[in-house]
Write the structure tokens for this entry.
Amino acid sequence: MRPIRTFNVKPSLPERLEPLRELAYNLYWSWSVEIRDLFRRLDPDLWDDTRHNPVLMLGTISQERLQEALEDDGFLAQMDRAHQQLNDYLNKRTWYQKHRSGQAIEGECYAYYSAEFGLTDCLPIYSGGLGILAGDHLKSSSDIGIPLVGVGLLYQKGYFKQYLNPDGWQQERYPINDFYNMPLHLERNPDGSELHISVDYPDESLGTKKVYARIWRIQVGMVKLYLLDTNIEPNNHTDQDITDYLYGGDIDVRIRQEMMLGIGGTRALVALGYKPTAYHMNEGHAGFLSIARLEPLMQQEGLGYQEALQLAQSTQIFTTHTPVPAGIDRFPPDKVWYYIGSYCDRLSISKQQFLALGREHPEDEQEYFSMAVFAIKMATYVNGVSKLHGAVSRDMFTRLWPQLPNAEVPITSITNGVHARTWVSEDTQNLYDRYLGPSWSSGGVNDKLWERVSTIPDEELWRNHERQRAQLVLFARERLKRQLTKWGASPAEIKEAGEVLDPSALTVGFARRFATYKRGTLFMYDRNRIKKLLKNSDRKLQFVIAGKAHPKDTPGKELIRDIVRFSREEDVRHSIVFIEDYDTYVSGLMLAGCDIWLNTPRRPREASGTSGMKAAMHGCLNLSILDGWWAEADYFNTGWPIGLGEEYDDHEYQNRIESNAIYEILEKDALPLFYHRSEDGIPVGWLDKMKDSIRLNTPMFNTARMVRDYAQEAYIKASDRMGELRTQNYGKAKHLAHWKANLAQEWHAITIKSVEVSTDANDSTDVKVSQPIAVKAEIYLAGLKPADVEVELYQGIVAENGEVLDGKSYPMMLQSNSNGVSVYAAETSYGGSGLHGMSLRILPKHPSLSSSYEPRLIHWA
Ligand SMILES: *Cc1c(COP(=O)(O)O)cnc(C)c1O
């Protein structure tokens, strides 16, 4: 039955309780202990039953309960305090205002696009790490006042919920999201009708057709997040389904979704009156935003293709999140052209021109269109998400800059973080607030407050942690009982489930996506050895495990089944539990309650990883392969490294070596340290490590640090460039485009006519350390001027393969410029002995040149 009319019924609240509505609709509650506490107090059962959704709560709460609250002075006072706290938060003077005071360009605003956002339990529109990172990015941007606006998709069915069948095989269920009972606002026109935007899609019979989307807004503290939803009239069913599932469907669905995100998202911002001064693509899914940006620049602002391209490129930022080529969206050329061709036709961009933007080798007509390559070519700043991942990305995309040494490939890194107020448990936050002061959650690495970690009494830190471990154990038992009941287990079995795990045993947590490279079963590689450890009743050890496999990942599902089967074996059933349906709620309990956080990816496949950071902030010690963020942490003092960063070709051998390392660390180091107790039962040595973990990791692997980095390294620079390029009716952008066109034309004609290297020694191949060497070069610059180029001396040690290793470049000075010949000179010497190589190179130079992508324009001697 389709209804003849629909109503959006809003909660009805007594006047005095109206502040609850404002509190419910600003996601600030998701990281304010005080406001969450208020909703919990209003109705504890309903708070849990609604999956911590205050909007649904206010819509379903009984009138009696509201009446009681009205008569409860204590509650009203807490509500007023919470309301005041929100207002203070929204009106505070921020880091960004101070940092940027007086320099912000007009209308400064950064648009942040992501296919998923993980903000809180009751908004299931994320699948894992990428989404959670995006959610934390918004929250920290709000905390420090970055003028950010988020753009994404609102999925009707989101990502699946996991349950297991009695054999441990993963089953998926997709609950339907009820948008009207979520903390979402629908954007409307002044006349009250829904605001719709449209995106052009190909159509078999019409050529092209419009697909419409409405726009939902989530208020995340000070930041607004806009989410598109195509499930509306007059879209046909296929088009309504574009925003049905996150990462569902085939390649066509994927492209259609990415068009909605990139093109629809950009059109939504226009419709809402935004003119962002920089654009950030969180992963390549949003790459099509470049197309959407070119259109108004060319059609309304009258720029040519190259000019518009320059402007777009100079103001876009791209963050890559995968270290493996298979993790990148690549589309057959004819397929992308089928979808995007009509846009290019309208802008007179040829098929070849467009496809070249997504290819490593623009001339190769067979090459697939890569969304990451497209995003890189359309960005001024490109980064990976940990130092190691930055280096891996430079290798992965090195073919885009064939003449640059890998180390100079312009892809850098900003290491991920997590939002401390979201991820640190409420009890632990209270403890830190008391001993470190409330600014700990965004404190910088050098803040004095971190010295105060040592003032937290051991006893208090330990009791707090033990309480949280006990909570985790209770929760695991409840979940297990529920599962067994569902499967129709016997009362005896259900009773036994109520006794699994030990609230005081050393608890190892492992929770992540079950992809084979993460090796979820590595800890049980040698069954006898792990059983021996688990059966030792003097030094009890136990594992709590959770995680989902991608619905199509059969090998991933097999890993889950293997763990579940193993956990049923008689002698370990009390000490291994697999918790169903990993989500933010489960992860919160595990991160606070575990003692060790295990991570076993095959290096270097974990770009960053963030759950270990959340653990570290609680003082839960990481035991992990040196990959992602952990490779740059203080891994000896705040946990243990598994291996020292080795990489292997023989995976079986690797599993043997690395599982053995886990057993050795547990047996010889972790277990003895954990069970070495003072007279009052406190593991003093263990607590030292916990405190080091809190002190050293919290300020560093925090999104407060991360978004400050993005602001300083990328956003502000891009925004300033926008300010410059758009002045005088885009005069600078036009000038830059013409300069580049000229450069491209003249470049091939540049010739290095002669290079003279002289030393005061007789034999010119033998020089001494520090002995001066003079270099002089004659260069023909064709139609270019000396101001258009940088001439550099490039030198370093020569490796076995004959290449210069870790070379450094030094500018050469222009000596004279006459008769079409420019003479450059430099003096150099070598600081160390050995075989050194030297070369000379010419690069383009222009004050407005900002794009990281100047691939072919380099001359080597
Ligand atoms: C933090 C978190 C993640 C990401 O953690 P990884 O270490 O990258 O696996 C995924 N899912 C949930 C529920 C999380 O809380």
About this structure: Residues 128-129, 132, 512, 582-584, 587, 609-612, 614 surround pyridoxal-5'-phosphate (CB under 6 Å). DSSP finds 27 helices and 28 strands in the chain. The domain at 750-860 is CATH 2.60.40 (Immunoglobulin-like). The radius of gyration is 29 Å.
